[in-house]
Description:
elongated; seven-stranded mixed beta sheet; Hypothetical protein af1432; 17% strand; four-stranded antiparallel beta sheet; alpha+beta; 18 strands; Double-stranded beta-helix
Amino acid sequence: MTLSPYWLRDNCPCADCRDPRTGQKLFQITDLSADLTINHSSECDGMLVVEWSDGHASRYPATFLTGGSDGDGRTEQGKQLWVAADFADGLPEADWSAYLAEPVAVLDAVRRFGFALLRSVPTVERQVLAVAGTFGYVRETNYGELFDVRVEADPNNLAFTNVAIAPHTDNPYRDPVPTLQLLHCLRNEAEGGDSGLVDGFRAAALLRAEHPVDFAVLTGTPVPFVFRDRDTELRADRPLIEVDALGRIREVRFNNRSTGTLRGGDVEAFYRAYRRFAEITLRPELRLEFRLGPGDCLIFDNTRLLHSRTAFEQDGVRHLQGCYADLDSLASTLAVLERRVAALDTLAGLFAGEGAGEYLGEAVTMAEHMLQCGALAEAAGAPDHLVAAALLHDVGHFGGAGLELMAGRDNRHSHTGADRLAQWFGPEVTEPIRLHVAAKRYLCTVEPEYRALLSEASEFTLQVQGGPMTDQEAAGFAALAGAADAVAVRRWDDRAKDADAVTPGFEHFRPLLGRLIGR
């Protein structure tokens, strides 16, 4: 593989090049030598080691060179384009309470399909704002932070009447257009007024396949989208179909009510393409129809899906409340949640795998010991962070390090474990873990009777780990900010070796750990 020196050097992960807390670069590309070259490269312990002509040295995980990228997730790549029949077995949906407990599936549906439906959302005014708050922030527009979709006496938009609305994008005259829309049904007692969705990316892909010349016209023609009322005048000139630099569909803006007068260019070609695209969006097989009932809240991608409704009786009561939000906030929330799930799955795998092995000559396995320790902390009413520290305090033994300790070599598992867990947890969890071995040495000095309670294996490891502290060392330890928490973990650690104890499994602690990850 031929490596670009500037690409490789620009991505050096060391602490001199990137802030270890934020991951942000600490140098400019112009800081690098104009004739930068690689002096030498080699592989060592699964790392690519590069020595540079400017004297710098970089280490890259082997996976760095093979890792790919799906981009920012906003284009057709990675989406699941659909037709109505794809949801014959049901819509992507969840009950409100289930969503609050575990939101990943719903948010992922919005990312993949462009929409999801929440059921049994409390039918109270402004509740739609609370739904948006579960994954991001409300995007306020000229309609306010929320808007009421119902028949108005003096409407400034046809949406606030009882007429049928064809598949369309909301607010195409804004730049940027609101990327997410939420519609929460409070009442729907009208005859008609059914909702519809069309996958605009699928419609655009069909146009590209069937009429590539028309597709090129629509991606290359800026269209004036306009909105005016007494207090507002908005305009954005954007193509109906927007593609990225690689030609992938990224955004659809389609709204006949807001399309202004196109002037200049090949108008005939545009209207031929415009009509063909409109005809595709009206194909029955593309239109997914359903009825929103009280408590239903629809979340959808306004830059991808076109939404519609059928006409309804003028005197029928139909009241939705809506708001806009940003897709990047939803994507951010989902990414953090997925990281959390991956972290918890990794920890669960350690408990189920290596955790089933011997624990330093004790009568319990490593997992049993750690679970007992967490349970003792929980029973004592310890705060979440301390329960987590007790539960995870011996993670540093995994990977065979425990055998090294029993062979008479200090594996510094307290530090190893704390460093490993720092990718997920803050110092309130990791520091008691880092100090829990030192706490044993401390207690042996300040409480002579404590040492007599140590098991035979624990007495052995005490000697390997440095033995009791000196009085000076003990005073220094006691002054540390995390000393008290470390001592608490240590006391539970010493008691958590009962072969007959009944303790909960890892899944019991999973919600608690989930609340702490990424804080």
